[in-house]
Every structure is written in C-alpha cells, then in structure tokens.
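hey so u asked for the seq, here:
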Amino acid sequence: MTDRPRTVALLGGGVIGGGWAARFALNGVDVRLYDPAPEAERLVDEVLSNARRALRRLTLAPLPAEGAVTLAAAVEEAVDGVDFVQESAPEREGLKRDLLAAASRAAPRDAVIATSTSGLLPTRLQADMAHPERFTVGHPFNPVYLLPLVELCGGELTAGETLERAAAVYRSVGMRPLTLRREIDAFVADRLLEALWREALWLVAEDIATVEEVDDAIRFGAGLRWACMGPFLTYRIAGGTAGMKHFMAQFGPTLKLPWTKLMDVPELTRELLDTIVAQSEAQADGRDVRELERLRDDCLVSMIQGLRTHDYAAGAVLGDYERSLFAAAPATRDGPDEAPLRLYATVVAPEWIDYNGHAHESRYLQVFGDTTDALLRHIGVDLDAGSSYFTVESHLSHLGQARAGDRLRTTTQVLGHDAKRLHVFHSLYRTDDDALIATAEQMLLHVDTTTDRASAADPALLERIERIARAHADLPRPERAGRAIGIPQ
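ran it, structure tokens below
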C-alpha cells in the first residue's frame, strides 16, 4: 500500500465527494474537504457513518487507523501540501474549470489532480490549468466506498505517468481502475447506462411498465448476471459451444429490428415527470434515503463477498484489497514477544447484537478468529507462500456479555507447539472495565495449502514460535485451559 497518499484534497462534498471522503478516510488517508454548502459537513458525516457500517460488514481484514476529515475554507487551503486532489463539483463545465484552475495554481507541483466528472471531456477541463499534464478523469460509481470501478481518462495534455500514478492511488484504497485508450464523452460505463436509461424512460412514458417493473426486470434478471459477467462474456456463453460467432449469426440481425429507441428521447413533460416521481416514491415505501442507502450497501456487500469466494470480478478486487490490508497491518500493538501477546482490539458493532440485547455468540468466535489471524501475522505467516495454520479445534467459554459500542481487546498465550501443531489460549476483555468476558482454547495445524495436507512448518517460522513460547513459559497456565464439557456424576 506504498502508493496510498498521506493527504488528499476533495473539492465538493455531495454524494460523490462524500463517498470519496469515506473511501480515503477509512483507508487511513487524511482528507481536506472544500465545499461552501452549509450542509456539507453534516452530509459527509452521514455518508461516513454508512460507510463505516458497510466496511465492517464487507471485510474482517485490519483496516488502518481512520484518517481525519477536516473542512477547508478555500480551495487553496484544501490543496496546500497534499499528494492528490479529487474534484467532485456539480456537472457544470465552467464551475469545474474554475475549481481545477484554482487548485492547479495552489497545489504542489507533483500532486495529481483528478475529476469525478461523469462525462465532460478532460481536454476541455484541463484547458485553464497550470501544469495540465498531471490532470486526469477519475470517474467513480456510487457508492464510492463500496464499488471498486473508477474510470481513468486523460486529455490531450495529460502525461502517461499521471494515469499510472492515479491508478496506483486508486488501487491502494481497494479500487479497480479502467483506463480508456482515448477520450470520449461519458467514457465507457455511463454510455452503456445512458442507453439503458433511455429505454427505461420510454417504457414508462408509453405506459408499458412502471418504474418498479423496469427495476424488477433488471434486478431479477440481467442485473444479477452483470455482477460477475458483462454483455460480451454473457453473449459468448449464450452462443453455446459455437461461441460468439454463433451468437452473432443468430442474434445479429435483430439489431436492425425496431426493438429500441436508442437515438430518440421521450419528452420530459410535466405529466411524465409527475408519473416517475409518484411511482418512485411508492417504490421507496416510506424509507428515507439513508435507509435505502444502507439496504443498497448490505446487498452490495453480500454480492461482493459471494463473488470473493470465486475470486472473480468485484470479489477478486476485494480479495486483493484484503491481502494488501493484512500485509500492511502492524505486527503487534505492544512489544514483539510480550507475555501474553496483545494483538487485537475491536468495537462491538450494532449488527452483532441479537434479540437479547448483547453480542451473538457467533461474534465471540469471530473475534477469536480475528485474534488468531493477528497471531499468524505476528509470527510471520505469509498468506501467499503456500502454507498456513488452520484451526482444527476450539473450546469457547462465555463468561460475560458484550453490548453495542463496547470496546474489546484480546490477549494470546502460547501453551505449546511442535513441528505441525500450535496450541494457544485467547482471553477476551471488555476494555473499559477490564472484565474477562470470554476465553478460547485453540489447536492449530500447519497445512500445505497446495495439497491440503498437514505439513511441518518452515524452520524460520518454528523459531519465531519457539521464541514466543519461551517468553510465555513463566506465565501461569490459564484456569480454563484443558477443561472438558460435562456434568459431574
């Protein structure tokens, strides 16, 4: 994650600017935000709140300490000394050109300056800038903090190095850059979306379908497929064993049929607008925008996590992002071999709470699993080296309750080890009153992940474990270690 900037300037704090604030800040980047709107700070705080909730659901990888978000009174104050600038003002060319020109005069000479424009040509936007070679389009998709795609498009004066540097920054915060070969209005994704949007408006305007029925046609059909495969690969499969050649021969002639009004737009009459607004409100069913955003985020998290199990599409991006987070995570919070180890801390999230008002028992196992992952990082297990330790047995004891907002910390004691096994004991404490609320005794087995068979650990890894075991040798054995479940007779 060496390409991650220290500080970014955001010009504009609306839906997209707020999403950028969350994407950067939750990846440990300090954010300076310029937006003269009086509600900007409140709206960005609301987006950040939803983003924190979504990211906790998306990944268990250790995120860096959250970056600070501060408001700037002027463009010049926002961009002073920053590494990266992202402009997300409304889609008015004159406004964007003025902002970008002001930013280019005040930002450091080597700062990359990007715009979130969804369709304006970069050559026109960079026309008034100082050093326009460091300018690029960086067009994201809402919600910016979850959707990985960002389209890069340079103008006539943009240097190739700028596109490479911008792509590296976006990758460092878990995104998937798509760099266009040459500039074109609306880039790639929005041109495709515009075609679909025109057809959707016609279907409503001619009373073929309601707005909800149009949405249903996507979300229950092609939309699910598009989450993993775009139109070309989809149609390649539709061609069967003969592939795309057969599909084009069979369905190519339909392109000349009157199936589309792609080049025509319905007149947005008062009647049509009223119809769309009324049907959209009915579809929302009384839910406000923040509630709808949380529903959208939860659905996206589930789909992206599902795709991660196949290491495909957005799931592959998440997998790469998580590996980078694990690699960048600090090895330990205290001394290298402190007895016991203090490797993990967390906060009880609202979604952990069950019907009894406290954390569900599965979340205790999650915390202990995260603690074991922290231990593996501490001893130097390389997730890409072809071997790791797998937990083969756990014994949990629930001694207290954790409620939403409680801060938790764990300690780890190494009880024993040999060439293939690692015996550990975790203790879970509520940080505020230091109460012991759960313990977990675990046996880990070293596994060759290429063969899925137990194997001896590398001597260097065993040496690190032995060093920790020696540091833990004088600790008293935990009271609950080695306990069996049963009712005395």
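Residues 330-472 form a domain with the Thiol Ester Dehydrase; Chain A fold (CATH 3.10.129.10). The longest helix spans residues 289-308.
lmk if thats what u needed
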